[in-house]
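Please decode residue identities from the backbone states below.
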């Protein structure tokens, strides 16, 4: 059974940092592109970061230069280091991948940026 379990969210002040983790199981993690996607209240989902098999990355313009995605294939885990957080980064953050046309999602972790 495929499982994606996010952790590391919380309440942080503007300008602060958080690191999210997503522990994966039930599939061959190392051969899939992994994504971080967020959904702010009342808004649609936004692709934040893509971490490819070779650990190369792409980012949304809104987070480029502030967020860093990475993966540890030995630990079946993908990470999102978030720096210089802004109130507009407040959202539920999900890790995600697609296999054979099916999207898989974790339960999400809440990130709230507020003073």
């Amino acid at each position: 059974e495929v499982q994606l379990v996010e952790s590391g969210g919380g309440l942080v002040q503007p300008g602060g940092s958080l690191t999210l983790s997503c522990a994966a199981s039930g599939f061959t993690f190392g051969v899939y592109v992994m994504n971080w996607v967020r959904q702010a209240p009342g808004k649609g989902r936004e692709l934040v970061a893509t971490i490819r098999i070779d650990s190369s990355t792409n980012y949304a313009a809104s987070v480029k230069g502030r967020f860093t995605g990475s993966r540890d294939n030995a630990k079946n885990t993908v990470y999102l280091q978030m720096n210089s957080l802004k109130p507009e980064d407040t959202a539920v953050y999900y890790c995600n991948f697609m296999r054979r046309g099916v999207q898989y999602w974790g339960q999400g972790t809440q990130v709230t940026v507020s003073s």
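Observation: The first strand starts at residue 3 and ends at 7.
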